[in-house]
Design brief:
Number of strands: 16
Order of helices and strands: EHEEEHEEEHHHEEEHHEEHEHEHHHHHEE
Radius of gyration: 24 Å
CATH topology of the largest domain: Catalase HpII,  Chain A, domain 1
Number of helices: 14
Distance between the termini: 31 Å
CATH class of the largest domain: Mainly Beta
Largest sheet: 10 strands, antiparallel
Helix content: 25-40%
Oligomer: single chain
Number of domains: 2
């Protein structure tokens, strides 16, 4: 007699029958605010550590400036966006850029194999714009409801307090979309040599909106003028024996010497829409937009030229949020972006406090005027209008007034069945990982195979076989080399059936069907 499996519930005791997908309007979104299961899950996750950041705890930062070219590629930037920070050529906008690792604690080594945070605060004339990204241009998951599970699996075991390879791959084996990111992270690209030789990327898809109210999809990238340099596992180990903070030291010392690191900011642009001609959804964070079809278009230059005067007050208390946008830059229906927009600012209110935006490092350079009052650690009262008695709007007694509306605002038409959806466009979950494997130089592939082989030797057999099955479907050589390294029969791995509820390699999920106004099929779920 088999033991009955315990059922996952919310903290209210409600059974959770879909822990994979946000509620959204149709498959592509947008997500809806009444995602109670997600909100309960992500807001609790945001409060799991105090006062250290749950993720991105280990980091450093520097001040600098961004100068727009006034063009996007060869076209005037105003053709695509009304954001002044991107359209005004030659204007230097102050910035604060924080680099970080993701999983390790505040004193963990900077040689860790881990994505790197690349978070920029632009102090624009229209208020702050935060662009919160990573060095790699893809991510492990494409739905924000999975973020707490992912980080829990990658963090140390709650009992042994050890990071375990089997926990990482136990999570990954159920998420084929993660194979692309795993291929990047387990290669030398998973250990940047330092922050000055590292790319930056928004990862998320945004929209640019122009004065006519027209929108295009876009991704932001930052290419280091010094070039990209990464470390093998052996090189990283040798550095870590001498210095666990080598990247912080390198950045600080370079700026002190007057060797100011510089990046060129670029965007990729795609017309707004589902783009059914592609084998991936452009809103899927686990996929790259092919640069031969969607080239990197130069937008401006970013230079770091000043170290913090107080590390804690600036680098540690700096608070970023993906919802901090300026006019002309807007949200797409990217489900990771929409989930992060709630989570990041919620985390800052918990970690730094309700008035974190009053701290100098987080406050905009232009005067702020709100009707928000009080809260813990209030030290500045924003009286706003002419009459300090009026902290509401509208008022006829001298309070604040709404700003003028744009002549042509952007209005997205949304229609669809409300439910929980996985993307049906899953063909490229294996394709892009295989392409990345084949694109690596021989030494990068050798390091990748060595790193994953060492990990899989620490995993139970069923996880090891499933991961080899996954990698073989990405590229037969990829899977075969791992099987040889681990010492298992590749035929035993290949004989495994496809994952239940997931698309078979090279195939899409069946599109949902509808009846009587309600979604049907395995790719949707009624809401009870």
């Amino acid at each position: 007699m088999t033991e009955e499996k315990k059922t996952l519930t919310t903290r209210q005791g409600h059974p959770v029958w879909d822990n994979q997908s946000l509620r959204s309007v149709g498959e592509r979104g947008p997500a809806t605010l009444e995602n109670y299961q997600f909100i309960e899950k992500i807001t609790h996750f945001d409060r799991e550590r105090i006062p250290e950041r749950v993720v991105h705890a280990r980091g450093t930062a520097a001040h600098g400036w961004f100068e727009a070219y006034g063009k996007i590629g060869e076209e005037p930037a105003s053709q695509y966006t009304r954001a002044k920070v991107l359209t005004k050529a030659g204007v230097r906008t102050p910035v604060f850029l924080r680099f970080s690792t993701v999983i390790g604690g505040k004193e963990s080594p900077e040689t860790a194999r881990d994505p790197r945070g690349f978070a920029i605060k632009f102090y624009t004339e229209d208020g702050n714009w935060d662009l919160v990204g990573n060095n790699l241009k893809v991510f492990f998951i494409r739905d924000a409801i999975k973020f707490p599970d992912m980080i829990h699996a990658f963090k140390p075991d709650p009992i042994s307090n050890r990071q375990e390879a089997w926990r990482f791959y136990d999570f990954v084996q159920h998420h084929p979309e993660a194979l692309h990111m795993v291929t990047w992270v387990k290669s030398p690209w998973g250990i940047p040599a330092d922050y000055r030789h590292m790319q930056g990327s928004s990862v998320n898809t945004y929209k640019l909106v122009n004065d006519k109210g027209e929108a295009v999809l876009c991704k932001f990238s930052f290419e280091p003028k010094l070039g990209v340099k990464n470390l093998t596992a052996q090189q990283a180990a040798e550095i870590q024996m001498k210095d666990v903070g080598h990247a912080t030291r390198d950045l600080y010392d370079a700026i002190e010497r007057g060797e100011y690191p510089e990046w060129e900011m670029c965007v990729q642009i795609m017309s707004d829409g589902p783009h059914d001609e592609l084998d991936f959804d452009p809103l899927d964070d686990t996929k790259r937009w092919p640069e031969d079809r969607f080239p990197l278009l130069p937008v401006g230059r970013l230079v770091l030229d000043r170290n913090p005067s107080n590390f804690f007050a600036e680098a540690e208390q700096a608070a970023f949020g993906t919802g901090v946008l300026v006019g002309g830059i807007d949200f797409s229906d990217d489900k990771m972006l929409q989930g992060r927009t709630l989570s990041y600012s919620d985390t800052q209110r918990y970690r730094v406090g309700a008035n974190y935006l009053q701290l100098p490092i987080n406050a905009p350079k232009k005067p702020a005027a709100t009707n928000q009052r009080d809260g813990a650690m209030t030290y500045f009262v924003d009286t706003g209008g002419d009459n300090p008695h009026i902290n509401y709007e509208p008022s006829s007694l001298g309070g604040l007034n709404e700003a003028p509306k744009p002549a042509h605002d952007y209005h997205q038409y949304v229609e669809g069945h409300l439910g929980r959806y996985q993307t049906t466009r899953a063909r490229s979950d294996y394709k892009q990982a295989g392409e990345r494997y084949r694109s690596f130089e021989d030494w990068e592939r050798d390091d990748l195979i060595a790193n994953i082989t060492a990990d899989l030797k620490e995993c139970p057999e069923h996880i090891c076989l499933r991961m080899i099955w996954h990698f073989w479907h990405c590229d037969p050589d990829y899977g075969q080399r791992l099987a040889d390294g681990v010492g298992v029969d590749i035929e035993k791995a290949k004989a495994l059936p496809p994952l239940e509820g997931r698309a078979a390699p090279g195939e899409d999920l069946a599109a949902p069907t509808y009846s009587s106004g309600q979604p049907e099929g395995h790719n949707r779920h009624d809401e009870g």
